[in-house]
Amino acid sequence: MKAVVKIDQLVFSWDGHLPCIQIPAFELSHAEALFIKGPSGSGKSTFLNLLGGVLMPSNGDVTVLGHRYDDLSSSALDRFRADHIGFIFQQFNLLPYLSVIENICLTCRFSARRRQRALAQFTTLELGAVDLLERLGLTDERLYKRSVIELSVGQQQRVSAARALLGAPEIIIADEPTSALDPKSREQFLDLLLSQCNEMGSALIFVSHDSSLQHHFHRILELSSHEDGGFSL
Amino acid sequence: MILLRLTWKSLCNRKLTLMMMLMSISVSVLLLLGVDKIRQQAKDGFSSTVSSTDLIVGARSGQINLLLYSVFHIGNATNNISWSSYKAISDHKNVRWSIPLSLGDSHRGFRVLGTSSDYFEYYQYGKKNALSFTEGNAFNGLFDVVIGSEVAKKLGYQLGSSVIVTHGMGNASLMNHEDKPFKVAGVLAATGTPVDNTLLVSLEGIEAIHLDWKAGVKLPGVSVSAEEALNAKLQPKQITAFMLGLHSRISTFQLQRSINRYSKELLMAILPGLALQELWGMFSLFEKTLAAITGLVVFSGLVGLLTLLLSGLNERRREMAILRSVGARPIHILALLMLESLFVTLISILLGLVMLYLAIWLGAPVLQQEFGLHIGLEGLSLWQWQLIGMVTVAGFLVGLIPGYRAYKYSLADGMSIRL
């Protein structure tokens, strides 16, 4: 199957100093669930920013869905990212002044492509949001209209996951989304996220320092120290 | 659409900041429009100190000088004019009415004006308002006096109060006409014009108190009592000026020319409206100062808005990063900030207008009664709409500064959510 993400001879360094990250070769296949582990400070977030096109490599290139990031202008890159990548962060992913449903629909308001895909799947965005919430185990309808600050952290992370999944982007990038959860809800969240990514056909790149989660994934990579300094994959 | 919704919800989420922003702009809008309304009103009121009078005639001097002494009772006439000239001109076929004015005496610093009872019938001010009485009525008897509202208030006079007229404008009691006291027969309602500060008596009354005077000095050894004066022949020989109302406005210039060329005496006729405008022109510095002050008030309001927008920005970096991660581009972030300051400005303008009209509605009766200032609930002038337009544009542009900063932040921060 064709690779969703392809990285070739990538080197990234801040301001031309010693390399911070080196990735000789990297590929991510369609609907693959990839676990990337590494200690804190190993450049996990930098790697994700490179994948998202927020940072540009000093050398080498990143190709996502056949588009080389080098070739895209910054606003084209912004659009591309909105259309094809869903993000879940560690914590505080949600806008406090919007309701649960409004937060989930937000990505589809900024990306026409994801809106169309969500509408094709669910007829309205709100129905899609409710459907995803139910699949992620948030079945209590009273929660939907509430402000997100009234939710527990675990509930908030499921809402973030629903938002990242709506409109079925090809890639989901998750940056330590479970670090604020207790072990039980961590497992539960991960199960639900993985099964939904699988169902939507989205590839998942999951970054964490917690290797106890790695058995859920198809493939595991580690950011490890490099002899030139920095880390490599 | 989503940007409008986000701006609105985000604003509502920061109620305290929102209220402070609204306060800073709406108060400056209130002041801006309020001061402009008062300025406009002062100008209108001033320009219509006399209305429906077509010509004012006096001895030849300058137009402002004649206006000042005949209408504002400031300064003195260079010369009097003869009764015969007044008679001749007021009998002209185009003249509908005439009001003689005789100045020169005073009462405790207020001018005493000798005139005819036509004054109460034809004198008009503002939007063709006639004089009205709060008490009593026009003078009937020789020693009746009608007083303006300000005179009544300052001196505490009522109907029947006794008034002793002083010769000339001095406050010194050297030359009082104490042998012939007047009695208050009527009190006028406030007009906001010099009439409020005037005491009105009949021409015959002026004549009577000067029976035993000559050239401004009491004749020694001659004394005419008040009772004798009642029976004396009291034909005025001179007056200071007179006002004319014409049958048709078209003949105004024609009559003005012929008065200016009057052969028996050096006379001058002026159009009060034009003269008043010329006089107001002298206050342009006052107008400019007012405009500058309100301009500064608006400026400081906008600076307040800018401060609040900028100081809130740091706390909102997370909000911006979240928006970026769900696909908002930096340009959206810029638009969000500009929309926010536009929203705040527009709501503030609405609030300012509501406060303005509320203030006018509550304050107008007091202003009318106490100062004779008439401020109506009428709509905004073109200039006031333009002022509002300028504030709106300025408010929108103020959003550029935090907008640009947020734009820069969102480029630098990317997706990373900083705590």
Notable characteristics:
heterodimer; A: 233 residues; alpha/beta; Rossmann fold; six-stranded mixed β-sheet; 7 helices; B: 419 residues; 2 domains; two-stranded antiparallel ribbon; 15 helices
Secondary-structure map:
The complex is a heterodimer of chains A (233) and B (419).
Chain A: E1 3-12, E2 21-29, E3 33-37, H1 44-51, E4 59-64, E5 67-68, H2 74-84, E6 85-88, H3 100-110, H4 112-122, H5 125-135, H6 153-165, E7 171-175, H7 183-200, E8 203-208, E9 219-222, E10 224-225, E11 231-232
Parallel strand pairs in A: 2-11, 3-8, 3-9, 6-7, 7-8
Antiparallel strand pairs in A: 1-2, 1-4, 4-5, 10-11
Helix pairs in contact in A: 3-4, 3-5, 3-6, 4-5, 6-7
Chain B: H1 2-13, H2 15-47, E1 55-59, H3 63-70, E2 81-82, H4 83-90, E3 95-107, E4 110-115, H5 118-122, E5 124-125, E6 129-130, E7 133-136, E8 144-147, H6 149-155, E9 162-163, E10 166-167, E11 182-188, E12 198-202, H7 203-209, E13 213-214, E14 217-218, H8 226-231, E15 238-239, E16 241-246, H9 252-260, E17 267-270, H10 272-281, H11 284-313, H12 317-325, H13 330-371, H14 382-398, H15 400-413
Parallel strand pairs in B: 4-12, 8-11
Antiparallel strand pairs in B: 1-16, 1-17, 2-15, 3-4, 3-10, 3-16, 5-6, 7-11, 8-12, 9-11, 13-14
Helix pairs in contact in B: 1-13, 2-11, 2-13, 2-14, 11-14, 11-15, 12-15, 13-14, 13-15
